[in-house]
């Protein structure tokens, strides 16, 4: 039944807080597929040393498994809104999931690190089509408003990042090929869930221009957020992709370490970030969290020769990253009048490009200097993100505004569906 247009009824229901768990089946189907998609980010973490040993690859070559994946993901995201606006969200999601299944299988059958790097690039293409479209789909279909939808999305991200290393460690303990085959099987399940539970769009689609996400970066608020995310993601992926080498654990040990990291990220994404943004402006939360992350990375540099100390830094980093992920995503969704699919594509593209740079640069810095320097580099990058946010605070004034009215929310969701 459609909600009444009566203004009194609107006032009476404005203060109700729908449970984040009360969502349509389609939202849960997309969220489930998101969990699996984000598992792909941390999946290879526990098997990096094993791949390097089995395929006789250097740490830098092995880190390119992240770079090819993130680089293609970032570039492709600039064009996902153009495609989804023409063929629809459901088809775009299914193409993305299908590509991940195919390239994960091919990576599992590979006999050289170069082949895996190439197949991870194809995996990244599928990931781009899926992730960018999934965020807009969840925001458009979820009950409880934009903030609830973003928390749900970030919860899926955190859960996926937590489970990915654990599954990678368990399967990788048997063979480094296992995590790739496992992901392919789970993605196939996600594909079926989307087919069955997500309805095709009935509203008329308005095709977006192919350059719309690139042009969107000219909007000051989105440009500031994307630039900050670029530098912040360098710190994110140095912690995630480089740390397995100085830790020196086996696949199970690495899987458990980054499971703890991902659980911390998921908890703060869902519970802590909303509490903080209710009590202070979003930009202030970012300005507090970024220095904490930089300090944690500097601590990792100090404890790089202590496995216990480095594990603590990894878990603490996950707690801070969960806050930043949620608050930055909320800011992107609220910063402009752009269709949310375009804003998401623009922001995510730049964010993943920052992540693509970090792993091989970290490996090379460790080779040229010592194992602690990559963390110093990561801390400096996070410091640059803070400077960007501070200098761009005037452009970000809108993200600290009140929660949108029902009318504005409805208009935004309509745009996101376009």
Automatic annotation (TrEMBL):
<feature type="transmembrane region" description="Helical">
    <location>
        <begin position="285"/>
        <end position="303"/>
    </location>
</feature>
<dbReference type="InterPro" id="IPR053200">
    <property type="entry name" value="YfmO-like"/>
</dbReference>
<keyword id="KW-0812">Transmembrane</keyword>
<dbReference type="InterPro" id="IPR020846">
    <property type="entry name" value="MFS_dom"/>
</dbReference>
<feature type="transmembrane region" description="Helical">
    <location>
        <begin position="372"/>
        <end position="391"/>
    </location>
</feature>
<feature type="transmembrane region" description="Helical">
    <location>
        <begin position="121"/>
        <end position="143"/>
    </location>
</feature>
<feature type="transmembrane region" description="Helical">
    <location>
        <begin position="178"/>
        <end position="198"/>
    </location>
</feature>
<keyword id="KW-1133">Transmembrane helix</keyword>
<feature type="transmembrane region" description="Helical">
    <location>
        <begin position="92"/>
        <end position="109"/>
    </location>
</feature>
<feature type="transmembrane region" description="Helical">
    <location>
        <begin position="64"/>
        <end position="85"/>
    </location>
</feature>
<dbReference type="GO" id="GO:0005886">
    <property type="term" value="C:plasma membrane"/>
</dbReference>
<dbReference type="InterPro" id="IPR036259">
    <property type="entry name" value="MFS_trans_sf"/>
</dbReference>
<feature type="transmembrane region" description="Helical">
    <location>
        <begin position="26"/>
        <end position="44"/>
    </location>
</feature>
<feature type="domain" description="Major facilitator superfamily (MFS) profile">
    <location>
        <begin position="26"/>
        <end position="397"/>
    </location>
</feature>
<dbReference type="InterPro" id="IPR001958">
    <property type="entry name" value="Tet-R_TetA/multi-R_MdtG-like"/>
</dbReference>
<feature type="transmembrane region" description="Helical">
    <location>
        <begin position="251"/>
        <end position="273"/>
    </location>
</feature>
<dbReference type="InterPro" id="IPR011701">
    <property type="entry name" value="MFS"/>
</dbReference>
<dbReference type="GO" id="GO:0022857">
    <property type="term" value="F:transmembrane transporter activity"/>
</dbReference>
<dbReference type="Pfam" id="PF07690">
    <property type="entry name" value="MFS_1"/>
</dbReference>
<feature type="transmembrane region" description="Helical">
    <location>
        <begin position="349"/>
        <end position="366"/>
    </location>
</feature>
<protein>
    <submittedName>
        <fullName>MFS family permease</fullName>
    </submittedName>
</protein>
<feature type="transmembrane region" description="Helical">
    <location>
        <begin position="150"/>
        <end position="172"/>
    </location>
</feature>
<feature type="transmembrane region" description="Helical">
    <location>
        <begin position="219"/>
        <end position="245"/>
    </location>
</feature>
<feature type="transmembrane region" description="Helical">
    <location>
        <begin position="309"/>
        <end position="328"/>
    </location>
</feature>
<keyword id="KW-0472">Membrane</keyword>
């Amino acid at each position: 039944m459609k909600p009444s247009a009566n203004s009194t009824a609107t006032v009476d229901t404005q203060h109700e807080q729908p449970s984040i768990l009360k969502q349509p089946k389609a939202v849960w189907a997309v969220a489930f597929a998101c969990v699996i998609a984000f598992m792909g980010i941390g999946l290879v973490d526990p098997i990096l040393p094993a791949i390097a040993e089995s395929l006789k690859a250097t740490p830098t070559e092995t880190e390119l498994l992240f770079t090819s994946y993130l680089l293609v993901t970032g570039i492709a995201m600039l064009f996902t809104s153009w495609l989804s606006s023409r063929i629809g969200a459901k088809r775009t999601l299914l193409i993305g999931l299908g590509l991940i299944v195919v390239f994960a299988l091919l990576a599992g059958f590979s006999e050289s690190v170069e082949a895996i790097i190439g197949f991870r690039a194809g995996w990244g293409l599928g990931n781009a089509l899926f992730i960018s479209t999934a965020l807009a789909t969840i925001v458009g279909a979820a009950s409880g408003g934009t903030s609830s939808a973003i928390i749900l999305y970030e919860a899926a991200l955190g859960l996926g990042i937590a489970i990915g290393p654990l599954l990678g460690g368990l399967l990788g303990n048997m063979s480094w090929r296992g995590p790739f085959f496992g992901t392919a099987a789970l993605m196939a399940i996600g594909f079926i869930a989307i087919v069955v539970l997500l309805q095709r769009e009935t509203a008329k689609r308005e095709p977006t221009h192919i350059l719309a996400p690139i042009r969107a970066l000219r909007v000051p608020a989105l440009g500031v957020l994307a630039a900050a995310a670029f530098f912040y993601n360098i710190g994110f992926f140095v912690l995630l992709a480089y740390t397995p080498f100085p830790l020196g654990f086996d696949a199970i040990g690495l899987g458990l370490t980054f499971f703890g990291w991902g659980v911390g990220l998921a908890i703060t994404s869902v519970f802590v970030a909303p509490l903080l943004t209710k009590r202070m402006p979003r930009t202030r939360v970012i300005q507090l969290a970024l220095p904490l992350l930089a300090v944690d990375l500097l601590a990792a540099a100090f404890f790089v020769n202590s496995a216990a100390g480095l594990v603590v830094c990894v878990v603490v980093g996950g707690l801070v990253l969960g806050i930043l992920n949620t608050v930055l995503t909320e800011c992107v969704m609220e910063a402009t009048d752009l269709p949310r699919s375009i804003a998401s594509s623009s922001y995510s593209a730049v964010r993943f490009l920052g992540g693509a740079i970090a792993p091989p640069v970290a490996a090379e810095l460790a080779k040229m200097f010592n194992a602690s320097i990559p963390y110093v580099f990561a801390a400096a990058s996070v410091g640059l993100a803070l400077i960007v946010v501070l200098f761009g605070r005037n452009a970000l004034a809108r993200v600290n505004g009140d929660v949108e009215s029902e009318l504005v929310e409805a208009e935004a969701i309509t745009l996101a569906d376009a």
